[in-house]
Records
---
Amino acid sequence: MALHPEIAAVTDRILERSKARRAAYLDLIRRELESGNDRPKLGCANLAHAYAGTDEQRDRMKDGRAMNIGIVTAYNDMLSAHATYYRYPEQMKVWALEVGATAQVAGGVPAMCDGVTQGYQGMELSLFSRDTIALSTAVSLSHRVFEGAALLGICDKIVPGLLMGALRFGHLPMVLVPGGPMRSGLPNKEKAAVRERYAEGKASREELLEAEIAAYHGKGTCTFYGTANSNQMMMEAMGLHVPGAAFANPGTKLRQELTRTAVHRLTEIGWNGDDYRPIGHIVDERAVVNAAIALLSTGGSTNHLIHLPAIARSAGIIIDWEDFDRLSRAVPLLTRVYPNGSADVNGFEDAGGPGFVIRELLGAGLMHGDTLTFAKEGMAAYGRKPAIEGDALVWHDHPEQSGDDSIVRTVANPFSPEGGFRMVHGNMGRACIKVSAVDPDRWVIEAPARVFSDQQAVQDAFKAGELDRDVVVVVRFQGPRANGMPELHKLTPPLGVLQNKGFRVALVTDGRMSGASGKVPAAIHLSPEALGGGPIGKLRDGDIVRLDAEAGVLEALVDPAEWAARDLAVAPPAAIGTGRELFAMLRNHASEAELGGSAMLAEAGL
């Protein structure tokens, strides 16, 4: 099947825009390969330090002929998703020895949980934890004693951060190793209903806590299709997993064999063999487009409208929101997974999962099928489903039809002919809106603004009944430079309640909403942000704001002369406490959201 012309055109647009940066990047990794991928050239004292912490692997390391795999791990047991990694390094060392290689933990990276910090001060560290993870990954791989790397991470900022750091070592072959989702608990729809009842004062704290614990009950990622699980869909589409590794549950034979295969396969694609596949070559312009298409066709997390541009820039590639908008209009919506439907990711996997979606997209010419991937067979391998037969890991073709067409559908019978994203712009700047979960009669909202500078003030106004009307809730000074761009997920229940009452409601913010943003129309990531002169700083209570996702419009309906003459609102003072003051440098130098919201990349000229 020939590639869809719009996907080809967007890819060409990215190729042309990225030409000089990508050429410089490829030159960098060529030079890094030539100068830094030969352990025998290192000094003996340097090598002795690197080998001193190991026993059974030392003799094999000394001869320098087999791959030494650097494991970069995001393990901690405060995050359910990352608690699964506890035994992975020792298992991976055994699996490396099975094929004549060695493995060492190169380093650890922090992994914070937005679910724990949501609505509290710690969330203001969240976005910049991604830069911290990238820097930690670079430190981990800087010792130059590894010929390949395995990246152990799964959740929101962790996978983007690992990739941003790892791509600066693009001469090394690498694999992303997920841990899988927890098994299904309390259905997401029931959990959301308890949250909304609590927001209205109709459920007690005890009831809410019991519901939340019933939903988040074991090891593995949360089961809704938020940022963490959108990460896994994108890694499949970029060819950075063992095919089908995204949603196998922890503690299963299938999960173990997928990880074992990742180690074995990594040793086959080293620089000194005939199938060299460095990560910097796998992550090219086509792979980035494939990731965007996978995200859009499944109604994935809006956070990746920041993360994917940042990942791409680390590999010398520039993608912007116009590219996402154009791709979204060309790609059908093939899944309904919570918060865009009632099923969770386990239901998604059972109905066909990422492999079914990728098979459909490839077959319809809606995804690049000719990219270099971790799998020897190329992108087609990611359209198949793994299984255990006897003791062997095998892959099968998916059935022609979905296992449940209320969750996953074919290209011939999509939920929508278009994907789940729109870019909106106007006299307030450029913003993103996820429409896959929004009823089409809510795609256009025109109502008076009520302006706030923090989400707690919104919740207080809601509880006081001040928002019981048609309203565009505006929350500004929430961008990367203002306060680190925390997610505003705690606004979802009260805004949902207002919408349920029949009011025409929307959110406009220069902050993030969440991978779990859902039924309330939300224009988010508004750029330029309020701090530093963004036009959102000119809005006043009562101004009529028009949000039109269909036409791609976000406008303050204010006389242009008056709009031009207005002063900007004064920013609140920078907050301290919970370590936020330590991230001032990252806030002060952060790029706009559309450029990735990264101080590290901005300062590096990427």
---
Amino acid sequence: MAPRNLVARLISLFLFVNASIAQSCWKNTTCSGPTDTAFPGTWESNIFAPSSRTVSPASILSSEGAFISSFQGSAKLSGNGSQLVFDFGIEVGGLVTLDYYATGQGSIGLAFTESKNWVGEWSDSSNGEFKGPDGALYAVFNTSGKYSYTMPDIRLRGGFRYLTLFLVSNGTATVDINDINLTIGFQPTWSNLRAYQGYFHSNDDELNKIWYSGAYTLQTNAVPVNTGRHVPFLITGWQNDGVLGPGDTIIVDGAKRDRAVWPGDMGIAVPSTFVSIGDLSPVKNALQVMYDYQNPTTGAFPEAGPPLLQLGSDTYHMWTMIGTFNYFLYSNDTAFLQENWAKYLLAMDYIYGKVTYPSGLLNVTGLRDWARWQTGYNGSEPQMILYRTLITGSDLAVWAEDNTGLNATWNTRAANLKTAINQYCYDDAYGAFKDNATATTLHPQDANSMAVVFDVVDTDRAESISTKLLDNWTPIGAVTPELPGNISPFISGYEIQAHFSIGQTARALDLIRRCWGWYLNNPLGSQSTVIEGYLQNGTFGYRSTRGYDYDASYVSHSHGWSSGPTAALTTYVLGLSVTGRAGSTWKLAPQFGNLTNVEGGFTTGLGKYQASWETKEDGYALSYNVPDGTIGELVLPLLNAGELPRIMIDGQPVPQSMNPEIVGDAVVLSSAQGGSHEIVVQ
């Protein structure tokens, strides 16, 4: 028996080695992420992220996708053409290492797919040429013996669930697989991939899983900055060695592809990142690369970051500006704002210079946008985005301590634009916005949803729009008229916010369950992330109705622009949001729907923000715990319309200093103090 001091030394050595391994993170990146969750609890069982940066498959499937067995670390391939499918159980990404013993001569093929639809000897499509699948990698053996194969760095596979191994030989070779390990490539600065800085939990298990599937998607989209898709695109195979921007990690649009910074995606991805993972450094680096590549003469931002570096999008130009607001709101990164303020001003001059008169509407000449099939001229969607750009810009002018009067100027411009939008783009006969100021029968999902979310319309028009949006619904989501035949979780992310923002909670929750619930429970999907889009017939050929020349396997099954419910469930259902920089001011406005209890929280530089509520037979109970010194607004649902309920805060009646006022279906209490408080409403 070993002496106690020796045992202690061995234990210490073991812990040191494992700690060193854990802190290695990804390649040469710095481990700057959190080491533990900010909110430990039972809800951590819903986190899809693995507990280690090195993972192995969960099970073995046949070449037809049928379950064979759990994976215990070994398997066998015998004879030319033999193959097995290894299922990791969730979306993963990185570099695979195979340890095996081979007899004879031949090679092992490795093929990767996100969906079970395409398992086999060809990887699904990611290279960008739209011409078909990516093919496979090959581990070659020339003589009998032990081998170890690790994928080259440039062949990193950003997103997959299934790994097909198949044997190519003269017919007599065999391979005994001794081990399969995947080194996770995403969230490269985190040693602990489960160290979430936010959480959400309710009595509805499906909603909980949907929230965490969005969060996990955003993790897979936070990638090392030197692993972007190669440009020019390859005709065969794939290569992820493009430099995406500064720092160690950056947020891109998809795990498998495009693996590039697309600012339009960030309108959804950034708020969802903030309330869940909580790491905003990938967001900062993504925004910075847009400023770094801004046209210094015109002020135009790229549509996409390097190495893709596509140009010519007015909407994505504005999304960079809105992203700047969101990032600063959550982070209070004054150094970032001051460093880029002059460029922001140039960007505002560029886009507002396209407003024409007498209409006062934006004339869109940068036509590239998300996959909608019509763009340009006085399109209603860009008008909504410009309005949001002006409103958020006015706040940024104050935060940047710009004393040139821009706050007032941009607010005035926003008010004038709002008037013009409602005058020229709203279809009174139909009860929603047209796709353009010109005569058209198309009433888009994007512009109408954004009009409500961004507060471009009054209450009556908002209610009408919310009702009209229901006409697009199917059992598996809302078809978007501006991309016929397709369901876009990206744009539906704005629609659920629209319903929530006017108190149509049941509608918003219904759409979340239809769209995101359908995909999460789909056995052909990743069952852990959110998909880029799909067709209304339930197949994955997103955008194929527009005549794109690519197969359906090109669709991304881990796309951050589809993570809308993650932010929406926190902001509207839990009801907790920040309204001032880094949470100096905040709001708590719960929406119950058909739920009975919800809790959740997030973290800023000021500390933790947490809230919970529970409905009771005679009312409801609400609690919150936020940093001392912050000030909030409580928006408490009424129990009976127009009737002020009995409200107790920490066992005491509401003080008159909180100015209780009935507004719509709620009573609003101002100047709520930070700290920990209990509220009972009866």
